[in-house]
Design goal:
This is AB hydrolase-1 domain-containing protein. The protein is built from 7 helices and 4 strands, in the order H-E-E-H-H-E-H-E-H-H-H. The chain is α+β, with helices and mostly antiparallel strands and 129 residues long. It has 2 domains: 42 residues, no CATH class; 79 residues, no CATH class.
Length: 129
C-alpha cells in the first residue's frame, strides 16, 4: 500500500541540492473526477442479470470494508446466481475474510485463493504447446 501511495509523489527539490529532499503530491484531479463519473455512469446489471452462456461473473465483498452493499444489490446478485446456474453461466459472490478496501494488500493470499479457483487452462490450447 505504501509503495502504491508513493507513486503519487514527485521530488520537488532539485536533485543534488544540499537541503533535505522535498516531495509534492501529483494527483491528476481532472482525471480522478472523470474516472469517478465514468464509474458512476457505468451500469452492468443487464449483463449480470443475463449472463452470456459460458461466462462466469465473480463479485468480491471485503469482510471489513466500510462500504456497505445495498440490500437490493445483494438480492439482485443472489437472484442472478440462481438464474445463471440454470442457464450454463455463472454468478458468484465471494467474501474475502480479514480484508478492507485494499483487498490485494490486506489479504493477498485469500484473494489469490478466490481468483485462482476461476482460472482454467484451455485444453484446446494445451495440445498446441
Amino acid at each position: 500500500l505504501v509503495q502504491w501511495v508513493a507513486t503519487n509523489l514527485r521530488r520537488s527539490s532539485p536533485s543534488g541540492s544540499r537541503s533535505s529532499p522535498s516531495y509534492s503530491w501529483i494527483f491528476n484531479l481532472n482525471g480522478i473526477s472523470e474516472m469517478y463519473k465514468s464509474y458512476e455512469d457505468t451500469n452492468l446489471w443487464r449483463i449480470v442479470e443475463n449472463v452470456p452462456r459460458g461466462v462466469h461473473i465473480n463479485f468480491l465483498k471485503a469482510e471489513r470494508s466500510l462500504h456497505r452493499w445495498a440490500l437490493e444489490d445483494l438480492q439482485r446478485i443472489h437472484t442472478a446466481e440462481e438464474v445463471a446456474a440454470d442457464e450454463a453461466g455463472g454468478v458468484e459472490m465471494h467474501v474475502l475474510e480479514d480484508a478492507g478496501h485494499w483487498v490485494h494488500a490486506d489479504n493477498p493470499d485469500g484473494l489469490f485463493r478466490i481468483l485462482s479457483s476461476t482460472f482454467r487452462i484451455e485444453t484446446s490450447l494445451r495440445g498446441r504447446e
